Automatic annotation (TrEMBL):
ABC transporter domain ranges (all copies): 4-233
GO molecular function: ATP binding; ATP hydrolysis activity; branched-chain amino acid transmembrane transporter activity
Keyword Transport belongs to the record: yes
Entry protein name: ABC transporter domain-containing protein
GO process annotations (BP): L-amino acid transport
Domain of life: Bacteria
Family recorded in the similarity comment: Belongs to the ABC transporter superfamily.
Keywords: Amino-acid transport, ATP-binding, Nucleotide-binding, Transport
Amino acid sequence: MTLLEISDLYAYHGQLAAISALDLTVEEGQTLAVIGANGAGKSTLLRTIAGVMPAGAGSIRFDGRDITRLPAHHRVAAGIALVPEGRRLFPSLSVEENLLVGGYRRRPGPWNVDRVMELFPWMAQRRRQSAAGLSGGEQQAVAIGRALISNPRLLLLDEVSLGLAPVVVRRIYQVLPEILRAGTTALLVEQDVAQALRVADHVHCLLEGRTVLRGRPGELAREQIERAYFGVDARRQPAAAPGGSGSADASDPAGAGDPAGASDPAGAGDESGAIPRQAGPNPAGSGASEPSASEPGPAGAGPAGKADEEVTG
Ligand SMILES: Nc1ncnc2c1ncn2[C@@H]1O[C@H](COP(=O)(O)OP(=O)(O)OP(=O)(O)O)[C@@H](O)[C@H]1O
Ligand SMILES: [Mg+2]
């Protein structure tokens, strides 16, 4: 059954069409990964689906119902939950309080505070600790738990691996099968392409807000993905690479000139052949700027940048 159906969607930041003519479907129970370079429109897409950004044109149908103009809190009640880029926890609230924030407009279902703490066992002992004292990976786990507590049918995950060491990323992704088993469908944005290909049933690649490639991971050649990710023109004319500054990445998508993975924070040290993220002054993305009433927390909550720390327990 088709759970999410997006047709001819446009979304704007001022005059800029961050999403253009986008068609996308997600089948219930499946995992769709949206990939693309910095500024491709990935966060804009998730935010538009969650309703924290308006659609400029086109339609979004969820479980057969047109939700294009539905306010964000009604979408939560309908079963859509966003784990936003940058986590957006309340740093001064405890772990448990941050989780409970997600319970507002909660649907009935398997997820509650205790169940989330079973998923991430370290949380139980630290439930009263403030979120500000958590490592980046721990904060990410709390952000995922907060979304789960609303018992979503569709979980939107925006770059859960960003800024985390590979070992931490693996631990975060280890919980995905259990989340899917509980009946949730996942639409995730991931800049670590190798990670996306590992977990997704379908991959959808964006370039400057438009679909440039889609398919099942097994059907897509690495070369095809690289070309789509950076755009064929970007390969020929590195100086004109979208969002780039003529960086080595644009002319060298295979990353041969970037053995340390310096432009690929999440994939650093990962030898799985991740396509490097384009270098940019602010890889955390511009989409995390304006806090919204329907989003849970302030931007850049606390020491989210404490990268490379491991999730305990
Ligand atoms: N609040 C904003 N105001 C103006 N322009 C914005 C805003 N947020 C994003 N943009 C622009 O919209 C485009 C898409 O941005 P978006 O954040 O959706 O991309 P992304 O694929 O999530 O990138 P990243 O990988 O950096 O997170 C970019 O050109 C970006 O500069
Ligand atoms: Mg983004």
